[in-house]
Amino acid sequence: MTDRLSALTSWHSDWSGLRVGVLGLGKTGFSVADTLVELGASVLVVAQRAEESQVRLIEVIGAALVLDEVLDAPPRELALLNPELLVVSPGFHPDHPVLVWAGENGIPVWGDVELAWRLRDKVGAPAEWIAVTGTNGKTTTVQLAATMLVDGGFRAAPCGNIGIPILDAIRDPAGFDVLVVELSSYQLHSTSSMSPYASVCLNIAEDHLDWHGSLDAYIAAKARVYTNTKVACIYNMSDARTIRMVENAEVVEGCRAVGFGLGVPGLSDFGVVDGILCDRAFTEERRIAALEITTIADLAARGLAAPHIVANILAAAALARSFGVSIEAVRKTLARFELDHHRIELVAASGGVSWVNDSKATNAHAADASLGAYESVVWVAGGLLKGVDVDPLVKARASRMRAAILIGVDRSDLRTAFQRHAPGVPVFEVDGTETEEVMSAVVRLAASVAESGDVVLLAPAAASMDQFVDYSDRGTKFAQAVRDYLGGGGS
C-alpha cells in the first residue's frame, strides 16, 4: 500500500485529488463514487452497463464514466488516469482482467467495506460494527440482531450486503451507536482494516466456488470476519470450520469465543434445553444457570421452528447480548419477528398439501436446511449451480422426496445426481424461458404427484438469473402460479 493510502484512515484525512478507479455501477458502485467525490477525490467509474438514470447521476455528482460492454482489458481512460486506488464492486472475480492489471501495476484494490471502515467517523464518534457472514442465514440474523439492538434502546441499523450500502449508513447525518453489517465472501476478500465489536460466521458450505476458485479460498475469505474482533466471536458449534476459524483468528486481547447450537449449551454458549432457547454466556450465573430466551413451541406457533431458523435466532441473540441488550428486549423482538418473503414462506395449503416458497435457498446448503424441515417433499430445484456439487445434497435428502421437478440451465447436474443416488425418485423437467409458463408447468406437475401430507417446496439450491430477474422474482412467480392453480379448482 502506498504511504498516502496508509494515512487515509479517517473521513477527516486529506483525500483531495486522490485518483480512484471505481469498478462497477450498481448500488454499491454508485455509493463508492458518490462518497469519494464528496471527499474531493478524482473519480473514474468503469462499468459494463448502466441505466440512463445512473449515467445522469454520475454526471451530476461530478465523476467520470466509461462504459465498456466487453471490459476484457482496462479501458484507455483508466490507464491514463493512472489510479492510486481501485475500488471494486463485489461482482467482479479476482481474476477479472482489470483486477489482474491492477495487481501487475501495484495498484491497491479495496471494496466498499474497506473504504467505509476508514470513513466511519464522518458524523462524530464512529459506530461500533457487528459483522455477520456465512453461507446462509445472514439476512435473517442481521435483521434480528439489529431489531434486538433497537428494542434494547440503541441506535442501530442493518446494512452492507443486506441492501443499504455501508457507505450510505456511515454517512447518515443522525449517526448510530452500532451497525449490523452483512458481509459476503466477496466483500471480506478485499477487507483488511476492519475491527468489529462482535462477529459471526454462521456456517460454511460450498458456494461461490466459481468466484473464489476453491473451497479453501472461500473459507479463508469468510474467516476474515473474525480478524481483530474486540469483544465476542460468535461461532456455530455444529460447524467444525467455524470453530477452526475462531481458534485461528487474530483477535483483540480479551475477546471471548461464544458458541451457539441446537444442543445443551456449554459454559459460554447459547443453546436449547428441553425445548427452551437459552443464554448461558452473558449471565453472571452461567456456571449454574441459564437465561430463557423463548421456546421452540412459541416459535413453532409462528412458523419459526425450522432448525436453521432456530440457529439464526440463537446467533442473533448472542450478538445482541454481547452488546448489552437485555434479555427482555431480545424476547420483545422475537415476539413479533417474521421471516422475509421467499424464506420458507407458506404460500397456500389445500387438500392436505402445503406449498412453500424458499426461493432464497440459492445454494445447496440452504436447500439442505429447507429440505430437512419437512418429512415428505415434492422438490422444485435448479437454476445456476455456481460450480457446486449437488450429489451430497441429493444423496442426503432422497429419502424425504416424493418427486423432484427440475428447472433452469443446470438441470443435467441434478438429473445425474438423482440417477446416481436416488433412482427411485420420480424426476420431471421443465424447459423454457418464459418464466410464467415455467412456474405454471411446475405447479401442474407438482399437483399431479403430491399427496396429502406432502410439501411442495421451491428450494432451488441455485441462483436464479438464468430464467428470472432474481430469487425474489422466481419466488413471486412460483407463488402466483400456485394461487392461480388453486383458484382455478386445483386440489
Which features would summarize this protein structure in a list?
20 strands; UDP-N-acetylmuramoyl-L-alanine:D-glutamate ligase; about 35% helix; alpha/beta; nine-stranded mixed sheet; Rossmann fold; about 500 residues; Protein-Tyrosine Phosphatase, Chain A; 20 helices; six-stranded mixed sheet
Description:
- This protein has 491 residues and is of the alpha/beta class.
- The chain has 20 helices and 20 strands.
- The strands form three sheets. It has a nine-stranded mixed β-sheet with strand order 7-8-6-9-10-11-12-13-14, with helices on both faces. The chain has a six-stranded mixed β-sheet with strand order 15-16-20-17-18-19, with helices on both faces. Strands 3-2-1-4-5 form a five-stranded parallel β-sheet.
- Strand 4, helix 5 and strand 5 form a beta-alpha-beta unit.
- The model has no long low-confidence stretch (mean pLDDT 92).
Number of helical segments with 4 or more residues: 20
By helix and strand content, what is the structural category?
Answer: alpha/beta
Strand content: 15-25%
Could you describe the largest sheet, including whether it forms a barrel? 9 strands, mixed
Give the total of beta strands. Answer: 20
Mean pLDDT across all amino acids: 92
What is the CATH-assigned architecture of the largest domain? 3-Layer(aba) Sandwich
The CATH superfamily name of the largest domain is Mur-like, catalytic domain
User: Measured on Cα atoms, how large is the radius of gyration?
Assistant: 24 Å
What order do the strands of the largest sheet run in, or round the barrel if closed?
7-8-6-9-10-11-12-13-14
Q: Tell me the helix content.
A: 25-40%
Low-confidence stretches: none
User: What distance lies between the first and last C-alpha atoms, to the nearest angstrom?
Assistant: 64 Å
Please identify the top-level CATH class of the largest domain.
Answer: Alpha Beta
